[in-house]
Structure formats: C-alpha cells, structure tokens
Amino acid sequence: MSWSRTIIAWHWISSAVSLFGMLLFAITGITLNHASQIETTPSVRQSQLELPQDLHALLAEQDIDGAAAIPREIAAWLRDELDVPIGSRAADWSDNELYLSMPGPGSDAWLAIDRETGDVEFEQTQRGWISYFNDLHKGRNTGAAWKWVLDLYALATLVFCITGLLLLLQHAPRRKLTWPMVGLGIAAPMLVAILLIH
Question: Which residues cross the membrane (predicted)?
Fold first, then answer.
C-alpha cells in the first residue's frame, strides 16, 4: 500500500508542477499547427537618434574589429532612450559601423551606430502574443533561463507519464479498456506517420 501511495503522491506532485507547461504546450501546439491560418499584423517601431558627444567620443576610442559588447555607458544610454534592454550582447564592430541584432520571442530588433557620425538607427518588429508564446514553445530566442524551465517541465511531465503508467498497471485488471485505449494512443499516431506523412 505504501508503494501505491508513493506513486500517487509523485503523480499529483508532477501533475501540479507540469500543469501550466502542459497547457501552454497543448495550446501553442494548436497555434503552431495552424500558424498559416492565424493572421497577425506585425507592429514595427523605428527610431533615429544621435549619440551625445561624450558617448560618441567614447565609441571612437574603441579599437575593436569583430564581435564585442557595447560599452556599458553607451548601452545604458541606449536602454534609457529606446526603452530596450541592451545587456552584454555581442555586437558586430567594423571600421565604420557597430551593428547589434536583438531577436527575442515574438520579436526581432536591431540597431546600428555609425562610428563616424554617432547616428543611431533602431528597428523593432513585434509579431504579437501568439507569436510570443509560439516562440516560447520552440525555445526560440528565449535565453538560457527559459531552457532550464523547459527542462524542468519536461522532467515533471516524464514523471507524470511514468507514474501514470504505473497506476494503469495497478488498476488495469479492474478496467478492461485500459490497454486497448493505451494501444490506440500508440497505434493511431504511428499509423498516420507511416501511411500519411510523405
């Protein structure tokens, strides 16, 4: 009896931990599967700025060619002016331009700074909430922290499924449809994959 209680405890705990994740992935599975039928109108924001003289001078002092973070002072000014977190992302530096790509879930953004004039161009495209949650589903442009969240949800879902299988084994003798239903859940997608996916 203690073995059964332990399985039930793990089953409900894992279901509680994975509940939001399973709902999110089920709903976004539908929206991803029908992405071409869901119309969205992207919102594009463009800004043009000019670096203050002291920051332009700081930029001119940088002897960088290749990938490197934007100096903290310039990143802080850009963050305040554009209301966009710059962080320590690596930008592409060349003799005459600094270019920073800033993709995120449901959005794309970039900024370019002319190293000679100090002119700043910024563009951000927001594709809406559905696109945001679809990108969370795929782990696209979400960063390391979200990947850990996905791993946690996956682990909790595995525990939920395995303990569910153990509960099925325990209760199957009293419920004759248990294994036919499990078999249907396995056979149906396999037959579709084998016969209808080309």
Answer: 12-32, 148-171, 177-197
